[in-house]
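The methods section describes the discrete structure representation at length, but only in general terms. Each protein is reduced to its one-letter sequence and a matching series of backbone shape codes. I believe one specimen quoted in the main text would settle the matter. An entry of this sort, consisting of the sequence and the corresponding backbone structure tokens, reads as follows.
***
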Amino acid sequence: MSVHVKEEPVLVQNCDVENSELVVFNGNGVSELEDFGTCIDDITERVNQLEQKVVEVEHFYSTKDGAAQTNTSKSNSGGKKIAISQPNISKCNSAGKDKTKGKHVSSPELMRQFATMFRQITQNKWAWPFMEPVDVKGLGLHDYYKVIEKPMDLGTIKKKMEGSDYSNVREIYADVRLVFKNAMKYNEAKEDVYVMAQSLLQKFEEKWIHIMPKLVEEEKKQADEEAEEHANKQLTLEAAQAEMARDLSNELYEIDLELERLRESVVQRCRKLSTQEKKGLSAALGRLSPEDLSKALKMVSESNPSFPAGAPEVELDIDVQTDVTLWRLKVFVQEALKAAANKSSGGTNAQTNNNNTGEINKNNAKRRREISDAINKASIKRAKKA
């Protein structure tokens, strides 16, 4: 014996799933709904806060770089931007340290050695043409700035050294070489200024070689210290993120428990679906589209993992489903049928793609037969039990 689910809604008193009011609670339903609504709002707020923390942890481990103190990431839900703040473990860093971070800072001893070398160059008898900026206007050097991109002189370098404008000797070395290179670039090789600049540059390079070993030693030591500092900072950041991840796990577990308690409380206060409502729900399931029917069967499998929601043929016994599942199905079916009715009424003139429509109707009929067979089997079971 087979039961065919009719195309038209099954007329069962007080169980029209499409138009029935969802009276869920017994007693003072309005007050209880408000209480549950408040609980849901609180949980939602907590989940939103946890979501931001999860994004921070995911961002940290995806980049493996804790150097950025503030970045922008997009949340997985809502598409809103969230400011991600990494734990600040270096509040005591001074502005001067941040300014020279990653660049070698020469020791006072090395700076004194270079100052001695620089003084010897400036006291040379041929240094006088290079002690002041080139008098471009006075000498009528109209093309000077076209040839020389960055003018430099020993007097300017001396002032910058006295004002502590240089942080390492390589910067001073580069400017001193620039003074002589500019002179050699603008003047011809046969001119005196060219010969004087070439001679002083050679003497300067010879003196520079003597302080190079000390400079290389300092740079290597500083690089090692910075690498160690970075590694320690990274370890501290990873420890902080790991602790945050543990806290998130604990908070999510607590929310799961709270949701479970709330669900049990709701179930205890829910009225049970009547036999007539179950019959109406069974009939309404047969009118769902294949896509919506698959969703409905998935809801059943969530509360009953052994239920074969994806099987070609399924047997669905309404009477053995939990109250939570029945209410979920009732709400889902009501919304799905309303949406389908609105869509159908708004597009009655769309009669193209007859082949596709026929295939869909064929699938609908097949799924309805499956549900009808399942309901029929369930009815037979109840009859035998009676």
Q: What stands out?
A: The longest helix spans residues 192-269. The first strand starts at residue 70 and ends at 74. The mean pLDDT is 76. The beta strands are 70-74, 81-85.
